[in-house]
Design brief:
This protein is mainly beta. It has three domains: 128 residues, Alpha-macroglobulin, receptor-binding domain (Immunoglobulin-like); 99 residues, Immunoglobulins (Immunoglobulin-like), CATH 2.60.40.10; 81 residues, no CATH class. It is built from one helix and 24 strands. The strands form six sheets. The chain has a five-stranded antiparallel β-sheet, with no helix packed on it. Strands 11-17-16-13-14 form a five-stranded mixed β-sheet, with no helix packed on it. The radius of gyration is 33 Å and the shape is flat.
């Protein structure tokens, strides 16, 4: 009897072990706390933060408070997401909390690293440098800003940076580099933007050109010309613009024909040391002023509407215009046919009247009947 019981226990443990082994072999690959976003790779030795991870700056420095515009590109393999970024600014270039990006960029949804801002002296830091295993940014390019107050600077200035990975893959878990920022020229005006880029046919618009004084000196003797390459030309001159200031300038009214046009803005400044940013073009699409028709059944104070009833919708802008307030049975299957509106009056009877709607007044006229099937 004792031998039989011992044999029974041995078989029980053996079968239990086989069952456990079968269950263990069926487990899903191990994942970190990010869940399905990142799975441990079975292959070791892949480089983590890759070449091509770098930061550039599109601005030059000038004394006083200024916002520096940066672009960061992050490359990685093996799931080495970014944990943080440290930038050390040179003496005389003091970082400010106000005007500096916080967070650095939008972190991954489930990350416990938030890329929040900390400034200590000359050091600007976002995120963590502890190789968290989480990571807040996977890969790609994004823009960010740092506000600095510059005092007594001379010549090129160097900003050193360290990018921190999350410690997930193989070495290296960090990448280092530097950014050299040159002094702004004495005189430099730049064209930044032209609006609009979409216009409704038959509409008169006032184009606006944004310019910036990227130089070290205030300017008040310059000219800006905007042209469509045809009959339209508008020139503005000698508006005072301080060093580092941007201005949005109203140009002359323009009534373009339907089709595609190119507006060209050209700045002229005597002694401008950087003429590469003096000209900018903008393609402008002039679209047919097409309207669609709709009937407001229940009014909830929509923009451009005042109550239930017929409205026009300008398709190029989405703007709504109330034709009339009409609380009677609403119109279904209505739209423009040429310049006139036709539809069916919904009624709680067997007969649905065919109607014509005045596109100006919204008045409804019965023109026939439609029997409900």
């Amino acid at each position: 009897m004792k031998k039989t019981f011992t044999l029974f226990l041995a078989l029980t443990f053996l079968l239990g072990g086989l069952a456990y082994a079968q269950n263990y072999s069926g487990l899903a690959p191990k994942t970190n706390r990010l869940g399905t976003e990142k799975t441990i790779s079975p292959t070791k030795g892949a480089k983590a933060i890759e070449a091509g991870t770098d930061i550039t700056c599109s601005r030059k420095w000038r004394n006083g408070t200024k916002t520096l515009e940066f672009t960061m590109t992050y490359h990685q393999s093996g799931g080495e997401y970014m944990d943080g970024l440290r930038m050390v600014f040179p003496a005389g270039m003091v970082p400010n909390v106000a005007g500096t990006s916080d967070p650095l960029t939008t972190p991954l949804q489930y990350s416990q690293v938030l890329l929040e801002l900390t400034i200590t002296g000359q050091t600007v830091f976002w995120g963590v440098d502890t190789f968290s295993g989480w990571g807040a940014f996977s890969y790609g390019t994004f823009n960010f800003q740092v506000s600095v107050t510059n005092t007594g600077l001379v010549g090129d200035q160097t900003i050193n940076y360290t990018v921190y990975g999350n410690g997930w893959g193989s070495e290296p878990h960090t990448a280092t580099g530097n950014i050299v920022i040159s002094e702004a020229p004495a005189h430099d005006l730049a064209v930044l933007s032209i609006v609009p880029n979409i216009v409704s046919s038959g509409t008169t618009v006032t184009p606006q050109v944004t310019i910036e004084n990227a130089g070290m000196n205030d300017e008040n003797n310059w000219s800006l010309t905007l042209s469509d390459g045809g009959a339209y030309t508008s020139t503005v001159t000698n508006i005072p613009i301080n060093a580092g200031q941007s201005l949005q300038i109203d140009m002359g009214n323009w009534t373009p024909a339907e089709g595609e046009h190119t507006l060209t803005a050209t700045l002229t400044l005597a002694g401008d040391e950087n003429t590469t940013n003096n000209t900018l073009t903008q393609t402008v699409h002039v679209l047919p002023n097409t309207n669609a028709f709709a009937w407001v059944v229940r009014h909830h104070e929509g923009i451009g509407t005042t109550g239930p009833g017929p409205i026009n919708i300008t398709l190029t802008t989405g703007f709504m215009t109330q034709l009339a307030v009409d609380s009677s049975d609403f119109i279904i299957a209505a739209d423009y046919v040429g310049d006139e509106i036709y539809g069916i009056r919904y009624a709680d009877t067997e007969v649905f009247p065919l109607v014509k709607i005045n596109p100006t007044t919204g008045a409804v006229t019965n023109i026939g009947v439609e029997h409900m099937i």
